[in-house]
Amino acid sequence: MKTSFQGKGRIKGKKVKGKTKQRFTIGSIGKLFLVVLPLFIIATSSLPATQAQNANTALTIRADVQEANANTGVVTATGNVKMSYPARQIDAIAEQAQYFSKEQRVVLTGNVVVTQEGVNSIKAQTITYLVSEGKFVASPPDNQQVETIYVVPDREAINTPVTSASPVNQIKPAFKKQQVSPPSLENNSGQPKP
Q: Which pLDDT does position 28 carry in this prediction?
């Protein structure tokens, strides 16, 4: 792996200062490699790496720049931020996103728009998404309000079968209880039937 870095380092037992380009192995700078590798993996893979086993369950954050801090477990994404969570049909855009891996929390800031199922949406200055709870907390810009749009299906339309435009009255047959007499052996004239 080729790596370049600025600052102090030790190459082949000698201290060096300034910009250096050198082929490193775990033996020469093991600690640096063990710290940088997890940061590199977090910054270049779908987030969070521990949750996602396939593309449908991954919460993915894409941005122009992403920085990760291994000590705090915080990944900061800035510039043209897009978040996608297909398992819950959530998409979001923002100016900045911070993913707090220990708390399973994403804080989106700057002209945030979150959509769920492609139709429901929240617009705010700051929206915090609590991943494990599936909950959003939105804060508006000063002197403004949070805008939320929910598309609620008409409950009657869902439960009512489609019928004709005019209601149909059901006709109930009216049966009367009568005593049934045996067939008559006479015709209409009162004479016996031949």
A: 39
pTM, two decimal places: 0.53
Contact between 33 and 24 under an 8 Å Cβ cutoff? The reply is: yes
157 contacts 163 by C-beta, under 8 angstroms: no
Secondary structure (H, E, C), the chain: CEEEECCEEEECCEEEECCEEEECCCCCCHHHHHHHHHHHHHHHCCECCCCCCCCCCCEEEECCEEEEECCCCEEEEEEEEEEEEHHHCEEEEEEEEEEECCCCEEEEEEEEEEEECCCEEEEEEEEEEECCCCEEEEECCCCCCCEEECCCCCHHHHHCCCCCCCCCCCCCCCCCCCCCCCCCCECCCCCECC
Domain ranges of the chain: 15-157
76 in Cβ contact with 98 (< 8 Å):
yes
pLDDT average per 10 residues of sequence, the chain (194 residues): 34 45 39 43 42 68 96 96 95 98 96 93 96 92 88 71 52 53 59 61
Neighbouring C-beta atoms of residue 66, cutoff 10 Å: 20
User: Using alpha carbons only, how large is the chain's radius of gyration in Å?
Assistant: 36
The CATH number of domain 15-157 is 1.20.58: no
